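Cross-check.
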Amino acid sequence: MDTIAPTVQIKGFRDSLLVVLNGETWEGNQAALLTQIDERASFFQGARLVLDIGSQALGVDEMVHLRDLLSERGISLWAVLSESPKTEKTAQLLGLATRLSKQRVEEKPRHAVVEVPCEETALFVSRTLRSGTRIEYPGHVVVMGDVNPGAEIIAEGNVIVWGRVRGVIHAGAKGNRNAMICALDLSATQLRIANEISATLKPQKNPRPEVASINKEGRLQAELWQPG
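Predicted model, tokenized:
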């Protein structure tokens, strides 16, 4: 029987990142996780990680080694979720959380693969992006929070921000001129769609949801966001 290749699913969970691993071996899972982190170093930098490893049993040496590898990459291992009593005990000995909201954890799909075509995938970020944070993603990006000055989002698809935008957003980064940027308060330092660039947008006294896109004349413009 062929060995199932490890998959890595990443999603926002409160103020952390929930990472689900479902490969058959711990060595494969760890390698897949580190590959994802190294390929998106700026996204993971400073993150607090919740790791779900299913039924795999880890001892102290294995978990300490992983924690050290993550720490070297600027990532904090905060919690380890597992169906294995051994793994749970190991995590507790190391001072890691082993329980989260059961309902929220059960909602996650366990077999999604991150690497799928741009038009079929979106990165969901449920936190405010602070200065120095840079997200690059080969699809759409959805942020439930603000994008502060000094933060940057680069997406090959659309960018939707359920909050205020004060940083830099580049949608359609690989040349997609049909991409758009939506936000509840669109007062960005800079907006870009494909190769079109906007000037700095001044903060509004009474901000309203807006959507930025490239108009028929080929210029980037923002107008009131009217879904549907």
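The longest strand covers residues 159-165. Confidence is low (pLDDT under 50) at residues 101-119. Passed to J.P. for a second look.
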